[in-house]
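Every protein is a chain of amino acids, and every chain bends into a shape of its own. Below is the pair of lines this work produces for a single protein:
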Amino acid sequence: MLKNPNYTNLKEQYLFKEITDRTAAYQAAHPDQTILRLGVGDVTRPLPPVIVQAMQQAAAELGQPDTFRGYGPEEGYEWLRRTVVEQDYAPLGVRLEADEVFIGDGAGSDLGNLSELFAQDNSVAIIDPTYPAYADTSVMAGREIMFLPCLAENGFVPELPKQKTDIIYLCNPNNPTGTVLTRSQLKLWVDYARANHSIIIYDAAYESFITQPDVPHSIYEIDGAQEVAIEVKSYSKSAGFTAVRCGYTVVPKATGLQAMWLRRQCTKYNGTSYIAQRAAMATYTPEGREGIRANLEVYRTTAHSLKSGLQDIGYEVYGGIDSPYIWCRAPHGWDSWTFFDHLLQQCQVICTPGVGFGASGEGYVRFSAFSKPDVCAEALQRLKQL
C-alpha cells in the first residue's frame, strides 16, 4: 500500500485546529478568565422558527409508513432545485435549468470535491489570501498552484495570471479580507477564462451580505460566465445552516462539466438529507426570508460596529461592508501569530491569523462579526485598554 505523497506537502496542522489548540492551552492555564471569540466564521443567531418547524415536520414524516423516505435523488429533490432557479437566479436575470443545480451538504464539501473533475496536470490559480481549502485540495491532488496576491497596495484586487491557467478559484465577497470584486472587475476574469478555456470555481458563500449595487450576487450576471464558471453557494452563512449542512453547486451545461458532476455525485454521494432540504425550502417562504433578513441585519450591524470601533482605536482595517469579516493589519510590524498571541494573552480576544489564509495574509488578522453583539462590544472595550 502506497500513501498519497502529496499529503506530505500540506501544512502540518489545519489553521483552525492550531487556533483551537492555542486557545485551549491558554484556557487551561487561566481557567478563571473569559475568552471572547471573534475568530471563526460560525453563526450565532438561532434558526428562524419556520425553518425549525420544517425540519420537525420532515422528521415526523420519516416516522410514518405513508410518508417515510429512503435515499433521495443524488442531485437533490427537484422541488428545491427548481425553487433555487426561480427565486435565487431568475430575479437576477439569470436563466438556468433545474438540472444544472446540485444540492449538497454545504459549500465546503463541493469546493473540495470539484477538484476530481480535472486532470492532475491542470494548473491552478488561487487568490491569496483566501479560504485554505482551495489550496489544500489542490495540493492533495498534486497540482501546480499559482498564488495571486491580494494586498492593500492593489486594493485587494488580484491581477490576472500572466500565463495560461486552467482552474481559477475566486471567492467574492472574499474570505478573509471581506473585500469584493465589482461587476467590471469580475468581467475581466470571465473574459480571461473564455479566452484561455479556463474554468472558474466561484465561491459565493457570502453573497447574502452584499449591499453595494455594483457587486454582483452571482457570477452568472456577467455575460458568458455560464460557459466558464461553476458557482458554489451555501445556506450556512445566509440562513444559519452551519449545523444543518445544506448548500448547492451550479454546474451549467455550457461548461461541458454538468454530466461529469452528475456522474460523480451518483457514484460518491447518496444525497443531502430530506430534513435538511425541507429546511432549505423553508428559507424561501415569507417567514423564512424575514427571519434570515433580521439575522443578517444583526451581523451587518455588528460588522459595522466592529470595523468602526477598530478604526477608532487606531487599527488599519478593511472589509466589513459586504462581508461579516474585518481584515486588520497587525500593529508594530508584528506577524500574524504574534498579534494573535498578544490579543489572547493580554485581553483574551480570539481572532484568526491572516497568514493561515495564505502568504499574503501575513501581518494581518481576521475578526468575525458572527460573534454576538455584546461579545464584540466587550472585545472592543478590552482592545481599547491595551
User: Anything to note?
Assistant: The first helix runs from residue 15 to 29. The two ends are 54 Å apart (CA to CA). Residues 10 and 136 are 7 Å apart (CA to CA).
